[in-house]
């Protein structure tokens, strides 16, 4: 397959996914192989939701919508145009995927195949239903992919390079285990927001999407905010209140109740509104239903501080604070060229 054929296959996959990008699923005309795959994918969505209590219908639809919007001719061409694909010798690339949010490993999967390599996927048990089915769809719209996509639950073997995502502990294991292979190893990262106190109600409402989407389980979720000394949180709490029904979900409610009890028993100072807590803390990784905050005295000092912590930070959400900032409400809508950990996976794949 040449690059254009691979692009066309993923565009067709995007068109297929567009039918499932809302909580109300709508079958469309002129989608290739729809009679064969539509009902089956509906079933996989149901299985994914039943298997993982964090994968609600809303969050699965949100993830699928993101990929349906990304997999267009325009976006794929814009993403890939800076690279040269002419001299690719196909290699076997293993991907060890996380399972914290639906289809979280899809970008790596896409990157390997779009580069002309073969992929060996080791999925998380938390997210195992959607991608294998979508791979079958890809093989139908582009039969040349057959034999180039493999899933395994066994120990990885016979591969030339690896992209692995895990916790800080597993990342250290990956770095040792794969030390003789070309690799991208990702560990825990969190996202932060910098507030000035001049944010509008709309800014703060958008920030709530960065905090609560996927229950805060993604590395692009804001888990900590930096606020100026003397900051009043009244407007913040007002702007996030529309998320109050999140506590109706049992898994979230259990975490909220547990973490609240821990804080109260430990006599920690915290503010809460019945479904969410904020706590002053220097850490970046906050528990579910909790947001950490920290005061700053000058933006200059804060920039210097965050620069020393850049390996722990995925995104910085702000308005006019730093060059590579993300707008309020945009963390969960990355573009194809927004690489995790700012590591260019296509450049890596073209060099192996």
TrEMBL record:
Full protein name: Acyl-CoA reductase
Q: Which Pfam families match?
A: LuxC (PF05893)
- Keywords, comma-separated and alphabetical: NADP
**InterPro entries given in the database record:** Ald_DH/histidinol_DH, CoA_reduct_LuxC
